[in-house]
Amino acid sequence: MTSDDLKSLILLTFRDPERAARALCSLNLPMAVRWMALALIVSLSALLTWGASMLFPVEVETGMNSAVAQPLMIAGVQFAVLSVTALLMAVVGRSFGGTGDFPDALLLIIWIEFILLLVQCAQVVLMLLFPVIASLMWLVAAAIFVWLMVHFTKALHGFDSAAKVAFGIFATFLAAGMVMAVILSSLGLIPVPA
Length: 194
Hints:
Number of helices: 9
Number of strands: 0
Strand content: under 5%
Order of helices and strands: HHHHHHHHH
Structural class: mainly alpha
Shape: globular
Helix content: over 70%
Largest sheet: none
């Protein structure tokens, strides 16, 4: 894939995300390449997050600040979260009659993370020039994430309704969040209210 192909695919992602998803899946990349791409993208994202925290330190000390200071930990957590997200995208979609599989779901999640990495780069540049606008970029990133998740899931599984896919994604994330809260609280990693 040349740099022109990459630019075309980025533009296609915003113009017609479902066509972009089908184009990505048609690449038929080996599974090892997909895992390497995931490792690369989470490493770059973690390094960018760490670099941004060094450029723009936060005065108030929080748990997030100490986590950001450890890019390997951020990359590891992101790797696990994105892998589970791809697994849920494939398994839940198939349980509702979809036709997609885990390797393609993983590739689409990697691509979404790549697009979000570009948004993160733009945010760092904006922090230098227009800090107020940059602070609102998380809204743009969240909107892009939801929009691409819905359309990529729809394309992956051959679903007809974006609204039903959006509801399914929301319900899946809600259920996964509740399961994670139970697991983390049972391990003593998050406090349980008395």
